Amino acid sequence: MKIATICSLFLLFLFRTVDSSLAMNTVNFSVGVVLDFDTGFGKMGLSCINMALSDWYASHPNYNTRLLVHQRNSPTDVVLSAAAALELIKNVEVQAIIGPSTSMQANFMINLGDKAHVPIISFSATSPSLTSIRSPYFFRAAQNDSSQVKAISDIIQAFGWRQVVPIYVDNEFGEGVIPYLSDALQEIDVRIPYRSVISPTATDDQIEAELYKLVTMQTRVFIVHMLPSLGSRIFKKAREIGMMDKGYVWILTNAISNEFSWFNSSFHMENMQGVLGLKTHVPNKKKLEAFRVRWKRKFQQDNPNDVDVNLDVFGLWAYDASEALAIAVEKLGNTKNFTYQKMNISGSSNDLERFGVSQIGPQLVQALLGTSFQGLSGDFSFVNGQLPSSTLEIVNVIGNGENVVGFWTPENGLVRNLHSTKSISRSPASNTSIGTIIWPGDTSSAPKGWQIPTNGKKLKILVPLKDGFNEFVNVTYDPSTNKTNVMGGYCLEVFEAVIQALPYDIFYELYAYAKPDGEAAGNYNDLVNQVFLGNCDAAVGDITITANRSLYVDFTLPYTESGVSMLVPIKDKRSKNAWVFLEPLTWDLWLTTGCFFIFIGFVVWVLEHRINEDFRGPLRYQVGTSFWFAFSTMVFAHRERVVSNLARFAVVIWCVVVLILTQSYTASLTSMLTVQQLNQLLTM
Fold it and tell me: Is the pLDDT of residue 324 over 90?
């Protein structure tokens, strides 16, 4: 027992000695974290960063470097975030900064990092405008917003919409993607007739006024690009004024779709029914599911009052970005000088000129660019300082959640599932085969995306009341309800077919041109006059186009012929005489044919009578045989032998001519005897 106790104490002492030795050899690498810790998004990001470092170093205890996190709270104010970054660089001398949360904050912070050679790693600054800074020290551990514009244009092209209106927030985040979106839509010949710009501080009245402006326009396809806080207010007002009804199309960028998990209130999702959204696809793995459970438990322990915070793809990017930074720092080794080189600027009191430059910055940039691994969000690597384009999910908001109806991949475009390699047809007439979509207004029919604005009024269409010919227009009077009802008819079916074929929606209502007692309110001229006076918008029926009516109203092209017809007697041109069999051939042809019969008989006699006994004998016999042979070829009944090759050749040619002649004669005679030849006696 004493020996076992002594062994246990010895092993414990040995492990502590090894741990102390490793701790003494470990080099701390200062890293700043600049996020808004007063929001659930900032707390989620910090939690994922801490868990990433804890998990990574627990699974890699042999690493000689450790990231030492220095966190600074940075509200959404751009100046405060820049001040926090400046303080970390100047006083703490951090070698890298993770953050900030927004693209507006990142703009100035990137310039600070470029000046101090400190990499700025953001997992949520997605604006494409940040790329224009061209700083090698900026790393976007997220999808660039410009990576989704091709997916948006493919969706619009698949449904055949010709005009769209982007609705975006009035700041650098919202404006950054618009040039890329415009170029993508221009490639497929889609116009942007108007751009709706919403201030991030807009009041509900200002939002409502802007939406009412959109209602008066023809376009009904809207692309929304803004953060969820403003987007939820947009859809609340849109539902109140009827813009979530049938005929409207709403497409969300992943700025909102990626954070659907934050819309935990059924009220918010109820305002967005039928909306289409693009969402970053994250492969579902067991490792990810296990992390979600651990993260939820850990976050609730650290933040018991924040019960509505959920993990999204930005948290996964924060986790992977922290892991990538730990790998890159370890590549540098512990022999590097993790210090700043002070700048000697005499007489300057400006903090932007007095802070030093990180000596490890350029090497850290190269190490980050060479880091790639399989993270929680999928394949993680930096290409030109940002994550490459990846698969996007096409989600449809239904009920209290979203339904995945398809995918978009950079290689194959729109596909029904990720295992399919066949691109969806982009023909406007196709159904796109990306799953059943429930559009606004709870309809599965794809909106046309364009309609004539009527400011809440429907077009008034008059229909004539007439007796007889109900097949054209059928209007009946119901004595029980004292109403005249339009039942249908061929003219109305043509009108409805034209309405359905239009690339935009028209709302109309049919009215019978009748008195309250069911009698006609006037004749067709009176009906046309109602359109001219503006008492109705149009008239539909079997209305004849006349010169006088055309002076007052416009007619469509006629879809039925309505000329004047007459019944007149006719005579039969068929010949009734016995010599009708001579009519198929002209007299010239009859005479020519007879001469050729005689000529062929003479040619055969000349070639055969010297060597063929059938053509010898008395002169009278030879003449008769020649004529008999020639005329018998007409029915191919000749029996005399033909010995000479020249005679045989002549007979073959003649038989072909006779065959053609007899067949033509037979066809002509048959036609004359069977087809009735009619001729009218009266002409006009």
Answer: yes
| CB half-sphere exposure, 351, CA atoms < 13 A | 11
CA 289 to chain centre: 32
CA distance 496 to 490: 10
Query: Using the 8-state DSSP alphabet, how is residue 636 labeled?
Result: T
Largest CA distance in the chain: 157
User: Measured between alpha carbons, how far is 411 from 421 in angstroms, rounded to an integer?
Assistant: 9
Convert 394-461 into a string of H (helix), E (strand) and C (coil): EEEEECCEEEEEEEEECCCEEECCCCCCCCCCCCCCCCCCCCCCCECCCECCCCCCEECCCCCCCEEE
Q: Is the peptide bond before 100 cis (omega within 30 degrees of 0)?
A: yes
pLDDT in tens, 240-275: 998 898 889 999 999 898 888 766 555 567 888 999
Q: Residue 18 — very low, low, confident or very high, per pLDDT cuts 50/70/90?
A: very low
3-state secondary structure of 310: coil
Please name which of 497, 498, 502, 505 lies closest in space to residue 450, comparing C-alpha atoms: 505
Of the ranges 23-27, 489-493, 631-635, which is most confident? 489-493
Rounded to whole angstroms, how far apart are CA atoms 390 and 418?
Answer: 12
Residues sharing a CB contact under 8 Å with residue 661, sequence separation 6 or more, in sequence order: 593
Instruction: List all residues 6 or more positions away from 48 whose beta carbon is below 8 Å from its beta carbon.
Output: 295, 311, 315, 316, 318, 319, 322
Alpha helices, H only, 535-586: 547-550
Contact indicator for 121, 141 with CB cutoff of 8 Å: yes
Q: Count of H helices and E strands in the chain?
A: 21, 24
Q: Contact at 8 Å (CB) between 126 and 413?
A: no
Distance between CA atoms of residues 451 and 239, nearest Å? 18
Q: What are the DSSP calls for 113-179, one per residue?
A: HHHHT--EEESS---GGGGGG--TTEEE-S--GGGGHHHHHHHHHHHT--B-EEEEESSHHHHHTHH
Inter-residue contact 648 to 642 (CB < 8 Å): yes
d(CA 273, CA 291): 31
540 with 528: CB under 8 angstroms? Answer: no
Fill in the amino acid letter for 80: L
In angstroms, the Cα distances linking 175 to 47, 57, 172 are 30, 40, 5
The three state secondary structure string of 261-287 is HHCCCHHHHHCCCCCEEEEECCCCCHH
**Percentage above 70 pLDDT, the chain:** 83
Q: Give the C-alpha separation, 302 to 575, whole Å.
A: 112
Q: What are phi and psi of 35, to 5 degrees?
A: -140, 165
Q: How confident is the model at residue 14 (pLDDT cuts 50, 70, 90)?
A: very low
**Which is more confident, 365 or 507?**
365
Which residues are bridge partners to 615 per DSSP? none
- Structural contact between residues 65 and 59, judged by C-beta atoms closer than 8 angstroms: no
Q: Residue 475 burial (CB < 10 Å; 0-12/13-18/19+)?
A: buried
* Mean pLDDT score, 491-518: 83
Distance CA 9, CA 213 (A): 80
- Which residue from 51, 630, 487, 473 is spatially nearest to 299, judged by alpha carbons? 51
Confidence band, pLDDT 50/70/90 cuts, at residue 69: very high
